[in-house]
């Protein structure tokens, strides 16, 4: 009898964390490494938010809170959803967790039974399928390749739905591609969902405010009010507010589902950090002016990275609408040999050789469900990005 749970054999460690860890190890060993794997802004948390956290400490707000968040933060979330998305929720319909990942996991744990299917468009965030597996469900991936701008079509969604389908996990703008669905594109999907009342929608709106070039963000329950009662709208303060380490995510949805998620959280982690919750109140209620300034920086970086990668032989890099990732194709690099003599049969080998031969760390596409590609996070300095892209160009020029 194995000491470890059989469930553990169904999942794998996070590839993005593995890449970041490997880059850190090489850097500690003295290698000149540029890490483009981490999905977090390189900006400091804005001062007003930091000050709110400090005040919470000074005012003694350091004790246990309600298991899924203080009422002040839940109200701030309700106000944000009304202001930004036109969605009406009460605090009883809101759950606050230790990051967006916990919110998604709690919902899956609260709803999935063995055999239940969860549709996941690919490319996907690496954790979605494994969280479904840990919760006892079956991930059903729908590949949306470069030919559809990495967006799932209504026909693909319709074909993937079965009597066993319980959830669709929907992420826009996307990690890893940065692709974002327009109102009309999303309406086509919600029209399909309206024909299948057993399917619920779990949105991952974490990159909502990181959209560029006049793109207008929208979320499923906003586009189709008929889905309100079977939608869990998930978000957090990590990306737009540069608060990755504060670990605050949240969701709004039907009271019965929120209560079930609360029960799970009360018997696992209990409440998120109290100080982080008060900082998140300020993030949602306070000034939002810094978001536009940060986005201007992201646009500049995106444009530089897209242009430089498209200038690399064998690489084709679409320009995304949001987030801070690009997801270039290396189809024309497959089968070639690197300057050090490594033959490239797939994107994992490409990424490994790139790291070993040039010191540039990226995440290979197979980790996100669509190959042959790799993901670049451009949430780092202009100088680092320029140097990394120059090395990628030189690496590709040396392929034979």
Automatic annotation (TrEMBL):
Signal peptide: none annotated. SUPFAM superfamilies: PLP-dependent transferases. Its cofactor is pyridoxal 5'-phosphate. It is an enzyme of class 2 (transferase). It catalyses: L-aspartate + 2-oxoglutarate = oxaloacetate + L-glutamate. Keywords: Aminotransferase, Pyridoxal phosphate, Transferase. Residues 32-392 form the Aminotransferase class I/classII large domain. GO terms for molecular function: transaminase activity. This is Aminotransferase.
């Amino acid at each position: 009898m194995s000491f470890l749970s059989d469930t553990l054999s169904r999942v794998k460690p996070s590839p993005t964390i593995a890449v970041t860890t490997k880059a850190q190890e090489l850097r500690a060993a003295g290698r000149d490494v540029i890490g483009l794997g981490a999905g977090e802004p390189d900006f400091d948390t804005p001062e007003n938010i930091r000050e709110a956290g400090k005040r919470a400490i000074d005012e003694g707000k350091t004790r246990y809170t309600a298991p899924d968040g203080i009422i002040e933060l839940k109200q701030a979330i309700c106000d944000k959803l009304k202001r930004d998305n036109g969605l009406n929720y009460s605090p009883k319909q809101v759950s606050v967790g230790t990051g967006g990942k916990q919110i998604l996991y709690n919902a899956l744990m609260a709803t999935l039974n063995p055999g239940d299917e969860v549709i996941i468009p690919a490319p996907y965030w690496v954790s979605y399928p494994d969280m479904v597996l840990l919760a006892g469900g079956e991930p059903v991936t729908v590949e949306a390749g470069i030919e559809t701008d990495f967006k799932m079509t209504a026909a693909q969604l319709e074909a993937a739905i079965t009597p066993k389908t319980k959830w669709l996990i929907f992420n826009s703008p996307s990690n890893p591609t940065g692709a974002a669905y327009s109102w009309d594109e999303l309406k086509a999907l919600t029209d399909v969902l309206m024909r299948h009342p057993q399917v619920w929608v779990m949105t991952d709106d974490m990159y909502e405010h990181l959209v560029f070039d006049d793109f207008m963000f929208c979320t499923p329950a906003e586009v189709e009010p008929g889905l309100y009662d079977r939608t869990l709208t998930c978000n957090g303060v990590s990306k737009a507010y540069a608060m990755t380490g504060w670990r605050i995510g949240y969701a709004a949805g039907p009271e019965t589902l929120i209560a079930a998620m609360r029960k799970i959280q009360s018997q696992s982690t209990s409440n998120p950090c109290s100080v982080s919750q008060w900082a998140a109140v300020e993030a949602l209620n306070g000034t939002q002016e810094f978001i536009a300034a940060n986005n201007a920086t992201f646009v500049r970086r995106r444009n530089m990275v897209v242009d430089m990668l498209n200038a690399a032989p064998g690489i084709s890099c679409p320009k995304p609408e949001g987030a801070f990732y690009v997801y270039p194709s290396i189809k024309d690099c497959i089968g070639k040999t690197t300057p050090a003599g490594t033959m490239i049969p797939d994107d994992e080998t490409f990424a490994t050789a790139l790291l070993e031969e040039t010191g540039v760390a990226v995440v290979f596409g197979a980790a996100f469900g669509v190959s042959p590609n790799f993901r670049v996070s451009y949430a780092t300095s202009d100088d680092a990005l320029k140097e990394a892209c120059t090395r990628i160009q030189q690496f590709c020029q040396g392929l034979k």
